[in-house]
Amino acid sequence: MSKLSAEASRALDRLRDPEAKALTALARMVVDETTATPLAELATPRWLASQLKTALEAATRGEALKGAVKERMDRGRDTWATDERPLREVVPEEIVPPLEKLLARPYTPSEGLMRRIVRQPPVRDLIARILEDTLQRFGRRMRALDEGAGGLGLRAARRGRKLGKGLLAVAGVAEAASDLARTLSEEVEHALESRVKAFVGEATTRAADTMIADMSDPETAETFAEFRVALLNEILDTPINELIAEAEGMGPLDALDVVQEAIRVELDREDFIDRAEARIARLLEEAGDGTLGAWLDEVELRDVWVDTTTELVTARLKAVVETDAFVAWWTELFV
After folding, report:
1. Comparing 161 with 214, which gets the higher pLDDT?
2. Residue 32 Cα distances to 25, 98, 293, 303, 307, angstroms
3. pTM, whole model, 2 decimals?
4. Domain ranges of the chain
5. Where are the alpha helices (H) located in the chain, listed in sequence order?
6. Which tens digits make up the pLDDT trace of 301-326?
7. Distance (Å, rounded) from C-alpha 330 to C-alpha 80?
8. Distance CA 260, CA 255 (A)
9. Strand partners, 239
C-alpha cells in the first residue's frame, strides 16, 4: 500500500476527529438526497422484489430469526419487566403529536375489505362467543332473580292474598302473574339451553353485517379516528411492566411461527417475484413524482426521521473510516 501524502493524512485525521463535523455533514447530504429523490427513481420494482424475497428467505429459514427475537425479548424483559413508568415517559415526545395527527385522519375502508376481514372464521367465532356468553349470563340472572325473590309471580300472589279474601280478582291476577313469570323463566331457560346455538349463528351474521356497515360508513370515520387516538393515548399512559406482561401473554413466539410459515408458503410459489414486482410497480406508479420527504412532511415526521437517520449514517461512517480497507481506498485517491 502506498504511503499517505501529508495532505491525505491531514484529511484522514480530520475525518477521524471526534469533534469534527465532516462525517456528519456527509451523512446529512446522503439523507437529504435520498428524501428528495422520487420513490420511483430509488430502485426498480424488479430489484426491490428480489431483495424482498432474499430478506424474507433469510428471516424465515431456520431458527435464526426466532432465536434473535427471543434474545431481544429476554433482554427487554430484564430491563422493563419491573419498570412502572408509563410508556409515554420513554417515548420521544416529538413523535406523539405526529402520530396522533396521523391516526386522527378520517379513513373509511371499503365494505368489501371489511367483509373479508370480519367474516374470517376467527372473527366470527369471537363474535359468537361474546353473544353466547351474554345470553347465558342473561339467563342465569333471570333465574337468580326469580329464585332469589321466591318467584316473581308467587310474591305477587302473596301480596294479593294479603288484601283479603274479598279481593279474589286481584288474587286471580296475582296467580296469573305467577304463572306468567314461571312460564317466562322456563321459556328463556329452554331457549338459552336448547336453541342458543342456532340463535347465535344467525345473530352472529347480523352482528358481523352491522360491524361491516359501521366500519365502512363514511359518517363513522370521525368516530373511529377518535377511537384510534384514544387507544394510542391509553397505551402511552399504561405502565411499561403491564405492557410487557400483556405482550408475553399473547405468545409472541408462537405468533412468529405462524407468520413465518405463512411467509414460507408464499415464497415457495414460483411467481412470487413477478407478483411482488407488479405490486411494487403499482405502488410506485401511484406515488408518481412523490418523494419520501414529501410524505414525511405530510405526517410531520421529516425532522425526526432526518435527525435519527443522520445519526445512524454518521455512526456507521465513523466506524468505516477507522478500518484498514478505508485507509487503503483513501490512499489510492491521492496517488
Report:
1. 214
2. 10, 20, 8, 11, 10
3. 0.49
4. 109-216
5. 6-16, 22-36, 39-42, 45-60, 64-80, 96-103, 111-118, 121-148, 152-161, 168-194, 196-215, 221-236, 240-249, 252-267, 272-287, 292-298, 302-320, 324-333
6. 788 889 899 999 999 999 999 999 99
7. 44
8. 9
9. 86
